[in-house]
Write a structure and sequence with these properties.
Number of helices: 29
Strand order of the largest sheet: 1-5-7-8-9-10-11
Number of strands: 20
Strand content: 5-15%
Distance between the termini: 79 Å
Helix content: 40-55%
Radius of gyration: 26 Å
Structural class: alpha/beta
Length: about 775
């Protein structure tokens, strides 16, 4: 096919779409099912209607080929585990008794069976359920869900393409099951898994699939020759099947690198590549292998992870370069649109001109369709769209919101000394012990306590004008009083005020900083039914006034025990926002750090002796290629130190991280120079404690003993057992006792019971230590 005919044949498609619905109907239906208010049939009916709505929106916008299989009740990797029969033994009976309840048991756990481990999907804030595999794993094909979704789309008269997690990525994301040797490599199961994928492909072909997409994002990471050989073998075998649909292998989030020649040579009919995160690298690599003659190329030229309008002329130039490198070039977003909100037009509180800078899923879909039209018919066919796009880009570039000379001058004046504590850690530790007088194995929580219906109602009433500020603040004071009273009665050593006034750990601060925009309906799935509204970091950042001092000081007035000040760190403020793309992340992080530094100093001046600056996104934002790690970690750790280094030696700085693979960044954790770090550890059975010990981490640490992402209440014996395991790696004088994460999403009954058990476990182990 010539470049001209390839352009004429261009089609618009996407890899996935937001699942929740405009009003988060899926979240409400699932949580209603968990509480017994919604039955299984009603839940399934809601899911069916949401899929239908999504596909119709896509088709009406001009998308030629809609995705199926991207919709999930909880997580698409968990769906893949069900598809291939990789059910943990502890959940098998539940799945066999009731497939839906068993599915949710794997995700959330039960009182008798722990859930699957949860961690971040590459460098996004989406969490997936980690497959548990071992040498005895037996895979069995169950394509029921995938075939049903395809059938629903085809019945609507749509052209549909099932989207599956590819077999290589699935195994590379997996971990050894409990009881399996830690050095077991799940990739050794590839030959056992491929026949199951072959059966699923056959089932989908029989059900009417012309194309099936197999997502292999793990191949954009650094991969060994053995792993690349496994990918070659996988697609040689799957491509060699006779009774199968056409195969489109997709990668995203970074450059494909050494895996591109492997996939280009594979007997598959198409590749889908990201031309936003690594456009030049993927273009050069594609040209170096001689393109994809006779194959389909799906070009991800619209950023699927951020919310700024695309530069349509730049994207068209990229698409034009790709013509001639493939038999057919189609247009798509760089990845699934799962990572952005649904529709920017729902926002009523953002200035109309600024709103034109933003593209959520529906607007990105329109951009994709426009680009496909322009590629196929020439720029004259989209002249009006190009003119409007140029005006929107110019409006943003010239806006006073994006440039504050005072902020830029302060940032430019930062020196290396500003990022260093006045004394080394051993001297600080001695000063802090003398000042705080905490017991061995001090107990604390991560920060938030349950956000009750009453609190959410009070916040909604304030927004709607049903109560005034005085009435709202009275409710917050009462909640803080209850939280402090509970912690004192339970016996916790370092308390928190509970964050009753906060809607979200990033949004709360964003709403009080200049340069940020907040949305009302910009919901994005973080995990399961947990949806967040990432704020939009649109301009230069500063702090007009104190943000947390008032409520922290009030909480401290209610108790003689130390109350932690609670802040979200600069890297997480970036990672969990839609960050500006018109300057470097390092520059933006430095601006945020200086604003937070002012807050840290004000907390200390108000008498706060323990200040926690959370950085759960430090590992999440780590670039996917090792060669890019040093530059990122240098500015990320500098930003944390810039936030925290201005305090006295006897002020104890804490940080917190959760749900990521920390072994990759232990040196960076050390470089933060925090006095205490708390980390997720319950689901991973204290793995992080061993990683810290292996590094020789010299400071205090609290690996979590209570998994807060499950409704189950761990017994005191269970928490004590985890604590003893932590002591095998971390000396008692440096070990803290805490949950994995904040308690915002939990209910009060399970929170009370779990924290009481946590304190009991700490006391038990203290007694054991004193007797030894």
């Amino acid at each position: 096919m010539t470049a001209k005919s390839a352009a004429a044949a261009a089609r618009a498609t996407v890899y996935g779409y937001p699942r929740q619905g405009q009003g988060r109907e899926l979240k409400k239906a699932i949580e209603g099912y968990w509480k017994g208010r919604v039955d299984a049939d009603a839940l399934r009916a809601t899911a069916t209607e949401l899929r239908r709505t999504n596909w119709r929106q896509l088709a009406e916008a001009g998308i030629h080929e809609v995705p199926t299989g991207d919709f999930s009740y909880y997580d698409h990797v968990l769906d893949t585990s069900v598809m291939v029969g990789a059910i943990p033994e502890r959940h098998r009976a539940a799945v066999e008794a009731d497939a839906l309840d068993g599915y949710f048991a794997m995700a959330r756990g039960t009182q008798d069976a722990a859930p699957l481990e949860m961690t971040k999907w590459f460098d996004t804030n989406y969490h997936y359920l980690v497959p548990e595999l071992g040498p005895d794993t037996v895979f069995t094909a169950d394509s029921t869900q995938q075939v049903a979704a395809l059938g629903q789309a085809l019945a609507l008269g749509l052209t549909a393409r099932p989207v599956l997690v590819g077999p290589v990525t699935y195994l590379l994301l997996a971990k050894p099951a409990p009881g399996v040797a830690a050095d077991f490599d799940p990739l050794t199961l590839l030959d056992r898994l491929l026949p199951v994928y072959a059966q699923v492909l056959t089932d989908l072909r029989t059900a009417g699939a012309e194309w099936v997409q197999l997502d292999e994002p793990a191949l954009v990471q650094d991969r060994t020759p053995a792993e690349l050989n496994a990918a070659a073998r996988a697609y040689r075998d799957l491509g060699g099947l006779t009774d199968r649909p056409k195969l489109l292998v997709a990668s995203y989030f970074d450059r494909l690198g050494d895996a591109l020649p492997v996939l280009a040579k594979a007997p598959v009919e198409g590749l889908a590549l990201d031309f936003t995160e690594a456009a030049a690298d993927n273009l050069d690599a594609l040209a170096a292998v001689g393109g994809l003659p006779g194959k389909r190329l799906v070009a991800g030229v619209v950023n699927g992870r951020n919310i700024w309008v695309n530069d349509l002329e730049k994207a068209l130039a990229t698409l034009g370069t790709l013509l001639g490198l493939a038999d057919r070039v189609d247009v798509a977003a760089s990845c699934s649109l799962l990572h952005v909100p649904l529709d920017a037009t729902a926002e009523r509180d953002i200035e109309p001109q600024i709103l034109r800078w933003l593209a959520f899923a529906r607007q990105k879909t329109a951009e994709i369709v426009t680009l496909a039209k322009g590629l196929g018919g020439g720029t004259d066919t989209i002249a009006a769209e190009l003119a409007a796009n140029r005006a929107d880009l110019a409006s943003r570039a010239g806006s006073a919101l994006t440039h504050d000379p005072a902020v830029r001058a302060r940032t430019a004046a930062v020196t290396a000394t500003d990022g260093r504590r006045s004394q080394p850690y051993p001297e600080r530790a001695a000063a802090q012990r003398a000042h705080l007088r905490l017991p061995l194995l001090p107990t604390t929580t991560i920060g938030s306590f349950p956000q009750t219906t009453e609190l959410r109602t009070a916040r909604a009433d304030l927004r709607a004008g049903r109560i005034d500020s005085a009435g709202y603040e009275e409710r917050i004071r009462a909640e803080i009083g209850e939280v402090i009273s509970f912690q004192e009665k339970t016996g916790l050593d370092v308390l928190v005020h509970g964050e009753a006034e906060r809607n979200d750990m990033v949004q709360y601060f964003a709403e009080q900083l200049t340069g940020y925009l907040a949305t009302q309906h910009g919901w994005v799935q973080s995990y399961g039914t947990r949806y967040v509204r990432p704020p939009i970091l649109a301009g230069d950042i500063s702090r007009p006034e104190a943000m947390t001092v008032r409520w922290t000081t009030y909480a401290q007035s209610l108790t003689a025990k130390p109350v932690k000040g609670m802040l979200t760190g600069p890297v997480t403020m970036l990672a969990w926002s839609f960050v500006r793309d018109d300057q470097s992340l390092a520059d933006t992080a430095r601006q945020v750090a200086l604003a937070l530094r002012d807050e840290v100093n004000d907390l200390e001046a108000a008498g706060t002796s323990v200040i926690q600056v959370d950085e759960p996104a430090l590992r999440e934002t780590l670039p996917l290629r090792a060669c890019d790690h040093p530059e990122y970690l240098a500015w990320a750790t500098e930003a944390f130190r810039l936030t925290t280094a201005g305090v006295r030696p006897d002020t104890q700085i804490h940080t917190h991280m959760c749900y990521a693979e920390f072994g990759d960044i232990v040196q960076a954790i050390d470089d933060l120079d925090a006095d205490v770090i708390s980390l997720e550890a319950a689901r991973s059975h204290m793995q992080v404690a061993r990683e810290l010990a292996g590094h020789g981490y010299p400071r205090e640490a609290g690996p979590g003993v209570y998994d807060i992402h499950s409704p189950r209440v761990p017994g005191a014996d269970e928490a004590a057992a985890l604590l003893r395991r932590g002591l095998e790696a971390i000396p008692a004088e440096r070990l803290w006792v805490n949950p994995d994460c904040g308690l915002k999403t939990r209910a009060w009954p399970e929170t009370r019971a779990s924290l009481e058990n946590l304190v009991t476990a700490a006391r038990t182990v203290r007694t054991e230590l004193s007797a030894s």
